[in-house]
Structure formats: C-alpha cells, structure tokens
Amino acid sequence: MLPKLLEKRLHDRNISVRTAAEELNVSHTTLHRIINGETMDLKTLVSLSNWLGVRPSTILDSDANDENTSISSTITALIEQDPRLASAFTEIGKELKNGNIDLRDVEDIVSYTIYRINDGKRRNNPINGDN
Amino acid sequence: MVKEEIIRLMVIIDLALKADGLTIEAVTKKELKLIGDFFALPPPEKK
Predict the structure, then answer these.
(1) What is the spatial distance between Cα A59 and Cα A54, in angstroms, rounded to a whole number?
(2) What is the reported pTM?
(3) Contact A42 B7 (CB under 8 A)
(4) Residues near B25 by Cβ (< 8 Å), separated by ≥ 6?
(5) CATH label, A2-54, candidates 3.40.50.10310, 3.40.50.300, 1.10.260.40, 3.30.420.40
(6) What is the pLDDT of residue A129?
(7) Touching check for B19 and chain A: CB below 8 Å?
(8) Do A85 and B35 make contact, defined as CB atoms within 8 angstroms?
C-alpha cells in the first residue's frame, strides 16, 4: 500500500523522492528503504501519515481493520501472543471509554502493534520472519 | 494530522514490547476483564 500511495503523491505533485524526503525531514535513502519495505520508526510513520493525509493503519496495511475480525478479538489474540501488551491495552481501553480516542484510532494503534510485532519477528528470524 | 493521543499510546505499545518477558499467566483476570469491557463497548462503527 505505501509504495503505491507514495508513487501517486509524487506523480500528482510532480516531485522527486529526494524532494519528498526533504519535506518529510528524512534522508532520501531512508525514504527509498521505506518504499522498498524496510521498517520505519514511529516518528517517520507519523510524518508520512500527515504528509500523505492518510491514517497510520492505511500505511501499515495490516489486517487490523479486516471486516471479518472484530477489533476486540484481534486485541485478545495480540495479548495471548504477547502478554506484555495487556497493560498497554488496558490504558488504550481507558482512553476509548473516556472518549479521548475512537475505534478508528484503536485500529491505528492495533495496526501499529501488529507492525511492531512482525518487525520483531523479522529481526529475530530474518529468513522465516514473515511466516 | 495524527492525534497526539494516538502517538502517546503507540509509544506505550513500543515500551510494552521492550519490557521484560511476561507470561500470559501473569496477566491478571482483572486486567483481562477490563480489556474485554473496554473493547466490547461501544459497538464498532460502520465504515
């Protein structure tokens, strides 16, 4: 999803990757690496989301917003997979209940969580990390 | 613009994933109930 979004934005604005990188305040090599599927940090993700005018979950292209899977069952599965996330999702749930975030925000956070977990798997097992 | 609150919560996710190991047995029933209660309500919005 991200390469297509970037390609369209570059084409629509008729600018180079280097110019886009300058606007994003990252090096052009970093932007090339992201386009080629390498992972990015949170700061870059937020910059890209704002620059492209899309939600983080759109960039991360995860299955967190799959219509066939409820957000609560995805969160349950994530906590079962990695119990360290329980406290974090308790905090996120409180913010949801207090009205400080909405369900689309939760989808963004869940997408980010899946992205980070998959990144960790790739780092620990570079050959089979995607399986 | 990505909300500051979302960024803060994503940072909490990052911190949680860097924390020392925790087994599912150590997650309290109270925590799991809270999470279940929070995310069961309100109902998902139609897109």
Answers:
(1) 7
(2) 0.79
(3) yes
(4) none
(5) 1.10.260.40
(6) 47
(7) yes
(8) no
